[in-house]
């Protein structure tokens, strides 16, 4: 007889942030748990004094020995930013600290998650298992397949979980971009093939603004606008802001900057780390000769500089917010600068 399968949602349902879901199969001591994503939520304005909101880890803490692995769909904070809290002693599953938690995902997804876990000093409690597009891996009683999807961070996946009760498809976050910067498209054909051959018993799908009518323009459409803005502001220093994980946006800013004879400097710790990670993994390409340290920008004429900063959402402690208040150590904004959000 087929084993029962339970879906336990620990955060992210009907809210933006702290995405965390558990799939449990089996009964008694044969139970096995697969966790998909473990993110944080940034507090709303009424949560005074709260820095971050975490998923409810109670169920995972109580069943810590049964967790086979964590699978990460993509590298956004609201999907992987909570892993270091899950691994901790006081709130998380620290009592299985001697058994590292396997964490599956694309190399970029794992690299983005790794930064936070490393900062927390908990790298010893995880075992990173990088996966490629289309990989099918056995995790506990499940078979898990990684289907490429397009999103505002590269190398995102939808997750197909084969269970005793049939196929569960977890879409992850996605934007159906037919002309992505890296030509890596959402593999809709594969999803259709699974639906036709095996059938999808349960679809878990969610995408911010999916209820809004119309289409979002392709990410590649940003490139021509950037080139135009750079051409219109020749001779002026340009400071741009982007999500630090939006490596394709960063690539397009860098391309526009280099094409207009500028050097590129990153501002903000996460921007510097992510650009380094993206270059190391070959996700983005910025030649050494075009990348300079932000401390050195004053050695160049303003028209030869483009700064790429964090803080596109107006986060109070980000590099751009400090810039606006005149409190940034490396860059002082003046009338001769152009800021592109
Ligand atoms: Zn996302």
Can you offer a commentary on this structure?
- The chain is α/β, with parallel strands linked by helices and 341 residues long.
- It has 2 domains: 5-204, Ribonuclease Z/Hydroxyacylglutathione hydrolase-like (Metallo-beta-lactamase, Chain A); 221-340, Rossmann fold.
- It contains 9 helices and 15 strands.
- A 6-stranded mixed sheet has the order 1-2-3-4-5-6. It has a 5-stranded mixed sheet with strand order 7-8-9-10-11, with helices on one face. Strands 13-14-12-15 form a 4-stranded parallel sheet.
- Helix 6 (221-232) packs parallel to helix 7.
- The radius of gyration is 21 Å and the shape is globular.
- The mean pLDDT is 94.
- The site of zinc ion has 5 residues, from loops.
Supply the number of structural domains.
2
Strand order of the largest sheet: 1-2-3-4-5-6
Radius of gyration: 21 Å
CATH class descriptor of the largest domain: Alpha Beta
Q: What is the correct CATH architecture of the largest domain?
A: 4-Layer Sandwich
What do we call the CATH homologous superfamily of the largest domain? Ribonuclease Z/Hydroxyacylglutathione hydrolase-like
Poorly predicted sequence stretches spanning 5 or more consecutive residues: none
Quote the average pLDDT.
94
Overall body shape: globular
What is the number of E strands? 15
Q: What is the structural class?
A: alpha/beta
Q: Can I get a quick summary?
A:
The protein has 341 residues and is α/β, with parallel strands linked by helices. 23% of the residues lie in helices and 25% in strands. It folds into 2 domains: 5-204, Metallo-beta-lactamase, Chain A (4-Layer Sandwich); 221-340, Rossmann fold (3-Layer(aba) Sandwich).
């Amino acid at each position: 007889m087929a084993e029962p399968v339970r879906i336990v949602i620990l955060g992210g349902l009907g809210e933006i942030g702290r995405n965390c879901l558990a799939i449990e199969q089996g009964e008694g001591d044969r139970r096995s748990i697969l966790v998909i994503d473990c993110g944080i939520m940034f507090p709303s304005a009424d949560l005074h004094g709260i820095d971050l909101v975490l998923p409810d880890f109670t169920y995972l803490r109580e069943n810590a020995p049964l967790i086979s692995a964590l699978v990460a769909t993509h590298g956004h904070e609201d999907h992987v930013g909570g892993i270091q809290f899950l691994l901790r002693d006081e709130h998380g599953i620290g009592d299985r600290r001697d058994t590292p938690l396997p964490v599956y995902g694309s190399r970029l997804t794992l690299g983005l998650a790794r930064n936070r876990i490393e900062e927390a000093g908990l790298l010893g409690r995880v075992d990173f298992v990088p996966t490629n597009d289309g990989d099918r891996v056995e995790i506990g009683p499940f078979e898990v397949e990684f289907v490429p999807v397009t999103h505002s961070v590269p190398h995102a996946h939808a997750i197909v979980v084969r269970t005793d009760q049939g196929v569960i498809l977890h879409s992850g976050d996605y934007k159906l971009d037919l002309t992505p910067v890296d030509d890596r498209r959402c593999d809709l054909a594969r999803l259709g093939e699974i639906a036709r051959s095996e059938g999808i018993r349960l679809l878990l799908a969610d995408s911010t603004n999916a209820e809004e009518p119309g289409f979002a323009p392709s990410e590649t459409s940003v490139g021509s606008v950037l080139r135009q803005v750079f051409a219109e502001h020749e001779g002026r220093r340009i400071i741009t802001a982007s999500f630090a994980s939006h490596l394709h946006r960063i690539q397009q800013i860098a391309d526009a900057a280099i094409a207009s004879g500028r050097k590129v400097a990153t501002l903000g710790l996460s921007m510097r780390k992510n650009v380094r990670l993206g270059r190391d993994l070959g996700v983005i390409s910025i030649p050494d000769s075009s990348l300079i340290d932000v401390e050195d920008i004053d050695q160049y004429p303003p028209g030869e500089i483009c700064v790429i900063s964090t803080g596109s959402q107006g986060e109070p402690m980000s590099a751009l917010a400090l810039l606006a208040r005149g409190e940034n150590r490396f860059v002082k904004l003046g009338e001769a600068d152009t800021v592109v959000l």
